[in-house]
Every structure is written in structure tokens, then in C-alpha cells.
């Protein structure tokens, strides 16, 4: 067994008794959030957890990614045109670039689904429009015909919660003064950060706040600058496999698009997604080499 699989099992075993109890006591599926930094291996964690829950614990498990809830290509273009000065909206990714109505409706239907008929899971095709992406045709969406026991919902900003306008302003001030780890909020106007923050507030109200989850796994690191190294290593592997990929400076620019949110919202997630309720969140802290340094139960 690889050390990665061993660590995944260790974390899953921490939550498993509670997940099983919740499955037995509720008619609704358990919603397990998995959130992690770019390059941390979040997708690998999610797919392995789905496999383990299904094959070793006989729990019917499905997964959905926040990426599958993006707006259509036309709506992404409209979003970009609506805020032409906001660099954070030039590409998909940030809160505000997902279809909030689709997400809220899907999770509402999911929680009420009892295996009566078919339920389709939204899908987004990132290859369309030269990589800008578009929603996949509905006939290509994955279909389930039985009520799932567990739904794994993974995404890079799953677990982030909005700040007050004053707190965003303070983070922006600290970045301008060079007092944050990378200071990327300083690369953006305060009003643009507040636009994303307002979108995140709507997300949390509609489908992504703690009231919509049962458990959360957070893959983190003590030094957020490690993300640049991890994502670069991933790109080198892609280039080795495909023969093409992003240059080093393009990878850094890609991460720069996510880093302002990390610097704004990670502190809140580290304090606990479920506020005073303990035992529902596990924080996995990776070192620079992506080895698990510690596991915290919050």
C-alpha cells in the first residue's frame, strides 16, 4: 500500500463511524466535502475515498466536482463582460463563475431523491472553445438510478466562507503593506475582491455553506507558497506524458489567480468550517514534499 493510500485511509477511518451512523439515521445522502489547494492531490483523494466507501464499506457513493457546476460558455463570457476590469473573472474558477441556480437545484433534487426514476449529475467539458470550456450536453451527464448513501462534493474553494467587507479591506491593506505570505490581494482592486466575496456569500447561502454539508476534509499546508511548487511538479508530469504543457511562468500566473482567495479565506477554514461543532472536519496538513505532516480533527 502506498503512503498516500495509507494516509487517505487514516483520514477516512477518522470520519467513517460518523458517516455510517449518519447513513443509518437519515433518509438523505451524506454530503462529504473535500477541499484542497491546487496541486495538493485533492482529486486523487476524492476518487480514492469514493472507491473505498463503495468497495470496502458497501456505501453507494457518487461524486460531483464544483468544476461541473460552471456557467455555460455564453454565460462565462457575459460574466467577463459584465466586470471587464476584474482580472479574477477573465477565466473560469472564482466564485461568480458557477451556475448558482443549477447547483442549488441539483442539491435540492439530490437530497429528495429516493431512487424514483433517474437523476442526472451536471457535467462541464473543459476541452470546448479551445479550453475555455462549456457545459456538456445533458445527455452526456452521468445518470444515477438509486439513492446514494454518500455524495462526495470536491472543489478548490469548497469550505470557503465570505468575510465581512471590513475584513476583506483589512486583508487588502495587509497585502499592500507586504504582510501576507504572497500578498496577491494587492494585485487586485478592493472592489473586485468584494465582488468575488459577494458571490461566495451567495454560494454559501444557496449550496456551499456549512448547513449544506455533513462532513469536510481539508487538505492544507502550513506554507501556502508550497502550492507553486506542487502545481509546477504536476505540470512537468503532464508535459512528460503529453509532450506539451504550460511554461513555468504560465503555471505561476495560473496559481496567482487562485492565491488571493487562499490568502483571504484559508484562515477561516482552518478555524473550523462548522464553527463550534467538533468532529465533522478533518484537516490534513501536507509538508513541502506533499507528505502528511499531521492530521487535525476540528
TrEMBL record:
The keyword Transmembrane helix does not apply. Belongs to the GLYK kinase family. This is P-loop containing nucleoside triphosphate hydrolase protein. It comes from the Eukaryota. One of its GO terms (cellular component) is cytoplasm. One of its GO terms (molecular function) is hydrolase activity. Keywords: ATP-binding, Cytoplasm, Hydrolase, Kinase, Nucleotide-binding, Nucleus, Transferase. The lineage of its organism: Eukaryota, Fungi, Dikarya, Ascomycota, Pezizomycotina. It holds the Pfam family PRK. Residues 31-155 form the Phosphoribulokinase/uridine kinase domain. It is found in: Cytoplasm; Nucleus.
